[in-house]
Design brief:
Elements: H1 14-26, E1 34-35, E2 41-42, H2 63-70, H3 93-97, H4 110-123, E3 127-134, E4 140-146, H5 149-153, H6 155-166, H7 173-182, E5 186-190, H8 199-213, H9 217-225, E6 227-231, H10 236-250, H11 285-297, E7 301-307, E8 312-314, H12 327-346, E9 352-354, H13 368-371, E10 376-382, E11 391-394, H14 397-400, E12 414-417, H15 419-439, H16 441-461, E13 466-469, H17 476-488, E14 494-496, E15 500-502, E16 505-507, E17 512-515, H18 521-528, H19 548-552, E18 557-559, E19 569-571, E20 581-583, E21 588-591, H20 598-605, E22 612-614, E23 618-620, E24 623-625, E25 630-632, H21 638-649, E26 652-656, E27 664-666, E28 672-675, H22 682-693, E29 699-701, H23 703-708, E30 717-720, H24 727-732, H25 766-778, E31 782-785, H26 791-795, E32 804-805, H27 819-822, E33 834-840, E34 854-859, E35 864-865, E36 890-894, E37 903-905, E38 918-925, E39 928-933, H28 944-955, H29 957-962
Parallel strand pairs: 5-6, 5-7, 7-10, 8-9, 20-26, 28-29, 28-30, 30-31, 31-39
Antiparallel strand pairs: 1-2, 3-4, 4-6, 8-10, 11-12, 13-17, 13-18, 14-17, 14-19, 15-16, 21-25, 21-26, 22-25, 22-27, 23-24, 32-35, 33-34, 33-36, 33-37, 36-38, 38-39
Bound molecules: zinc ion.
The site of zinc ion has 3 residues, from loops.
């Protein structure tokens, strides 16, 4: 379209502008870029093409042409984003970066994105920049705020209005209306959480510019009715690693079939994809920054930008829906999504869909920070290439069918997709969402207030009225940590200053009380009561239980007695710390094992001292000490060291004149190694996180370290955490055909090489490495495998006699399921992130220390393994049968006592085929042992109550190695 904007009618209706602009694309594809199957761009033969700017905007010179050139098909764009408005004072992305957003083969890193954000802020009063955090590697995390001048002048008042709407206890509905009159909603976009989904940063930078300078009516309305918040690089560590990786390995490569691995092995110090599974625990700096932002601004929407589904999926889940989210939120996110589908479909953009993604039951994701706190959490899965280059793509039949939720399907056959296409979709969708929000600003504010009001009123009007948490139970430190986790979510917790007597029972002074007449009552109920995912609810996207008491192995008691409101409480503003101590004056010390997780850290802090662990219960000075209790013999200097450890780790020790007469074993702190395969660092990142939080020294063991062998010279215990890898991938790693693939800090790749580096991350451990692991164990090493990692010893034959049975699904095949995919699976054993019962078969095994004989753990989908046999049939013949069962190595099995329901929280399917199978095996191999978990006891810093099982295996490594099979 070559018509200059001034020749158009003064204010053309949007539909006409749409047609005019679309017409620019409808002629022969002379101007639009044509992409050959090789992906190589061909220069347009007629340079006259340009989309009309929407009046009164004037298009920046060349912008429409550049955008058209880099959009692979006209229908993959919209009039809203087909030009960049010109400004004489504010730098456009092109003027700043020398290219349009989404230009092929280019990506901005965090520093460049922030420099642009600050250049915008310096050039216009409509943009401000704030620092909301620092990443683990020290990078800034930045927030942009964009509105008209009036909005920007009153940001503090607008924030105060939102804070008051968030707490209806201090705001009557009539007063709320007056606040709503003067307020406007904040709408927050989160970009670059998943690092290989690269298009969102480019999209929101151009969006920020457009919002700041465009004078077209829709944008003015957005600017005057909303404040748009943009976090352009929410995970800057990952962004910078990905950008370095792109320029080192992907730039210029346009053949999808021959692309090398598209992401570096790390996206942050600890997490990879799981950085988006941190809403409940807030462990990563990225999540903490967004959480801080939320409670500072109270945006009505957190909108998280991802890439995967063609061509744009606006999330809201297929159901079931979580009953602890206010129903208004579900209507709101459906309305927003349908508005986007309708608008973008109306603009002629194919493949915009909703509904068919996730379930709407679990809110553990970044956007869930909003959903769990009475705002709206939502997001996009936009189509992306995982690279900034243009690729030829094709979709499967079930991605291109016409459905009610996908009214204009994506293209069939092959088509080219560019980085600019991703920007066009993201930005058009974002503008549709903002347009809707601006038009409905008062409704969104009123809904936000109403949801908060409902949540508070429920706690006033409906039982339970409070949860009570006794301070003196099991692991008292873990009680403090649970309270700390609630406080981090702005759930109010008080502590009783006197005994409380209720119809439900008596609670001593010092009991923690979560009164439910508070605005975040719904979230408190969701976290503190069991989940009941419906059996016919279809395949969940991720976990179906997040009940904190089950994760922490603590009792949290609801009360239906309203008199709890009369209890005198001290409100807590920080995680409590109950310091332990040492009593008595004798030279020998004892520590009663009540399941304290802190024993693990204590042992390493006391590494210089001798510690023995009791193998059965004993009594001393009238106190009964269960198995697992510590006996610390008289030795120089140990007293002050114990005082220090007791205080900081909340442990209570007593002294005796002489050691008790009880069987005990020495428990030297082992040299611990943690193997992190280059092919999957994600779940083991959480293992490293848990170890680091507890200040446990360990050796980071890379694939090449295992290939090099002599493991026994460096470590005593090899911990191999859960990996989402099949066995061939566990052994052979990243394909050698991509090698050598250095992951190192260099001048060209300054962000690579942390937290570990390698001259070549391909090739895995190989058969050599597998042999070295076997040698390590046979020479007397202890290997501990968690989750899918247990495939390696069992199915590669390091241990013998255990068969993998059909009927289970490995973790790597679960998740992300659609409703349709779930239907056929009802007979398959599935525990997709649920709390289920277990029982110790060997209740005196060191792994059982601190636990009752019948307990429960958190389990995801893992393979099913049989009870070991003496031998397994190796060939078919009439007499070659399986050997007899050999259950001696079964430490724990699935299922509790008779009559107990298997599921504690969540849901299970086909559990009859799981109950009675081994949950933990301790199998001797040569002089060593392998301890095998059929679940992941070190999971996302959530299942703290399961951690001790692993810590027990590590602390008692010598006892485990010394035991003859079945003798422990
Ligand atoms: Zn993602």
């Amino acid at each position: 379209m070559s018509t200059p904007p001034s020749k158009l009618p003064l204010k053309p209706p949007a539909w006409l502008v749409g047609l005019l602009c679309a017409a620019a694309f409808l002629g022969p594809r002379a101007g639009a870029q044509s992409i050959q199957p090789s992906g190589e761009a061909v220069a347009p033969s007629a340079p006259s093409i340009a989309a009309a700017a929407i009046l009164p905007d004037v298009a920046e010179s060349q912008s429409a042409l550049d955008i058209a050139k880099n959009t692979t098909e006209p229908r993959f764009s919209s009039p809203w984003v087909s030009y960049v408005p010109a400004s004489s004072t504010v730098p456009s992305p092109t003027r700043f970066f020398g290219r349009i957003a989404g230009a092929p083969g280019e990506l901005v890193n965090a520093e460049q994105a922030y420099a642009y954000a600050r250049a915008l802020a310096a050039a216009t009063p409509r943009v401000k920049v704030f620092t909301i955090g620092r990443s683990e590697e020290g990078r800034e995390i930045v927030l942009m705020a964009i509105a008209d001048e009036r909005g920007m002048q009153h940001l503090d008042e607008l924030k105060a209005s939102m804070a008051s709407l968030a707490d209806p206890r201090t705001l009557e509905p009539s007063a709320a209306e007056r606040v709503i009159d003067a307020a406007r909603p904040f709408y927050y976009f989160n970009a670059a959480l998943h690092s290989d989904e690269t298009g969102s940063t480019e999209s929101v930078l151009e969006l920020a510019y457009r919002l700041a300078v465009s004078e077209q009516p829709m944008i003015r309305r957005i600017r005057e009715n909303l404040v748009v918040l943009i976090n352009p690089v929410s995970n800057p560590d990952g962004r910078d690693k990905q950008v370095d990786w792109f320029y080192r390995y992907l730039k210029g490569k346009t053949h999808r079939e021959t692309l090398p691995r598209q992401a570096p092995p790390y996206w942050s110090k600890y997490a990879f994809v799981d950085i988006n599974r941190d809403a409940h625990q807030l462990t990563h700096e990225t999540t903490k920054a967004v959480s801080r932002m939320f409670f500072d601004w109270h945006p009505v929407v957190i909108h998280d930008l991802h890439e995967s589904v063609a061509l744009l999926m606006t999330w809201n889940g297929t159901g079931p829906y979580n009953p602890n989210i206010d129903p208004i939120a579900y209507s709101e996110f459906q309305a927003l999504s349908f508005h986007e589908v309708e608008t973008m479909t109306g603009l002629g953009m194919p493949g915009v869909s909703t509904w068919n993604f996730g379930e709407g039951y679990s809110f553990m994701f970044m956007d869930s920070i909003a959903m769990n706190h009475n705002a709206i959490g939502r997001g996009y899965e936009t189509f992306g290439n995982g690279t900034a280059e243009t690729l030829v793509q094709s979709l499967s039949a079930d991605e291109t069918s016409r459905e009610w939720y996908r009214v204009l399907p994506p293209p069939t056959g092959t088509f080219s997709w560019s980085a600019r296409d991703t920007v066009n979709y993201n930005e058009t969708g974002a503008l549709a969402a903002l347009d809707y929000s601006a038009a409905n600003a008062k409704m969104l504010l009123r809904d936000f207030y109403t949801k908060s009001l409902h949540s508070w009123r429920k706690g006033l009007d409906e039982a339970p009225y409070a949860f009570l948490i006794r301070a003196d139970q099991g692991d008292p430190k873990r009680v403090d940590q649970l309270v700390g986790r609630l406080l981090a979510q702005h759930i109010e917790v008080g502590r009783s200053v006197a005994d409380i007597v209720l119809a439900d029972g008596a609670f001593p002074k010092g009991t923690y009380v979560v009164r439910l007449d508070q605005p975040y009552r719904n979230y408190a109920v969701d976290l503190l009561q069991p989940q009941h995912y419906p059996k016919d609810g279809g395949e969940p996207y991720d976990d179906v239980s997040w009940e904190l008491p089950a994760y922490y192995h603590l009792e949290v008691e609801p009360t239906a007695d309203r008199r709890i409101r009369d209890a005198s409480l001290t409100r807590l503003d920080a995680e409590p710390h109950r310091a332990g101590g040492v009593t008595g004056t004798g030279p020998v010390f004892v520590l009663k094992d009540t399941g304290q997780e802190g024993l693990f850290e204590a042992r390493y802090r006391l590494a210089r001292y001798r510690v023995n662990i009791a193998e059965s219960a004993f009594t001393a000075r009238g106190v009964t000490y269960p198995q697992g209790s510590w006996i610390i013999p008289a030795q120089a200097g140990v007293g002050p060291a114990l005082e220090d450890v007791a205080k900081s780790l909340d442990l209570d020790l007593a002294s005796l004149d002489s050691p008790p007469a009880v069987p005990m074993h020495a428990a030297r702190a082992p040299r611990l190694g943690v193997w992190v395969p280059w092919a999957d660092t994600d779940s083991i990142g959480w293992v490293r996180y848990s170890l680091d939080q507890r200040h446990i020294p360990y050796t980071y063991v890379r694939d090449e370290d295992i290939r090099a062998g002599h493991l026994q010279d460096k470590i005593d215990v090899l911990l191999y955490g859960h990996v989402d890898l099949e066995m061939a991938e566990q052994i052979q790693g990243i394909p050698r055909t991509w090698g050598p693939m250095p992951y190192m800090k260099t001048a060209q790749t300054p962000s690579l090489g942390t937290p570990a580096s390698s001259a070549d991350i391909t090739g895995g451990i190989g058969w050599t490495g597998l042999g070295n692991i076997q040698e390590f164990i046979e020479r007397g090493g202890l290997m501990i495998t968690l989750g899918n990692a247990s495939m390696l010893p069992i199915e590669a034959g390091i241990v013998r006699g255990v068969r993998r049975d059909s009927g289970g699904v490995p973790r790597s095949s679960a998740g992300g399921g659609t409703a349709a995919a779930a239907a056929a699976q009802d007979s398959v054993t599935r525990t997709p992130g649920v709390h289920v019962r277990v029982s110790f078969v060997r209740a005196t095994h060191p792994i059982a220390y601190g636990y009752p004989p019948s307990s429960y753990v958190f389990r995801q989908n893992f393979a099913l393994y049989s009870t070991p046999r003496r031998w397994l049939r190796m060939a078919y013949c009439t007499t070659c049968l399986d050997g007899p069962l050999d259950p001696r190595s079964v430490v724990m099995q699935w299922g509790g006592s008779a009559g107990e329901p298997f599921v504690v929280s969540g849901q299970a399917w086909g559990e009859d085929n799981l109950i009675g199978r081994p949950a933990i095996l301790d199998m001797p191999v040569g002089l060593g042992h392998v301890v095998i978990f059929n679940f992941n006891p070190l999971y996302r810093d959530m299942n703290r109550g399961d951690h001790r099982l692993v810590w027990n295996a590590i602390l008692n490594w010598q006892a485990i190695l010394a035991a003859h099979q079945g003798g422990a």
